[in-house]
Amino acid sequence: MCWGLNMYYKISNFRYVKSRNDAQLRDYKKSNTTTSCDPERFTADGKPIVPCGLIAWSLFNDTYSFTRGKENLTVNKKDISWKSDREHKFAKNVYPSNFQNGALIGGKKLNSSIPLSEQEDLIVWMRTAALPTFRKLYGRIYVDLKANDTITVRLSNNYNTYSFGGKKKLVLSTATWLGGKNDFLGFAYLIVGGLCIFLAFAFTLLYLIKPRLVAFELRSITVK
Q1: Which of 46-55, 100-109, 180-189 shows the lowest mean pLDDT across its residues?
Q2: Which residue ranges does UniProt annotate as crossing the membrane (predicted)?
């Protein structure tokens, strides 16, 4: 039984820069603050951009639709971001303003009537990856898949990866009550476990070869 189908977009050879203002995202009183957002700080007529910076400006904007036979599969984009990010890093009363209004459009546009805390595609994108190759959750389809089911994908190829020599892929992963497939966690457990066994063996061998000498000091005690 399948509990859902997770859809990720995977990008390679993409390098982030420090071009954002976290205070602007989480505090409406600082929504006009655009420091550390060069070169996407202001519009041509001097109005502050919200959210500012190249990271938000380059928001992924490919779109996908899925069908199984003649059945359209609904993509659920609710709760694809971290709850801690929605509640603490993106304010409920900060709205996009002057975003993607310049001559050069970087990626997806945002609905100016929806607060940043509900713009989950943006929140997922703004949790920047440490490596140049990464994948991010696009959405989920809650269907029970059967053997030999054929899923047809239609995509709009909007995101320009050619300019930086990158590649992009769509990754589909089934999910169970234990969650989706994640090889990294398994490899991490194996590596840490193997390291612990090696260190335990090394310390045991060291003790057998050169045991630790414990010195006792005897003192005479006179009882009166």
Answers
A1: 180-189
A2: 187-209
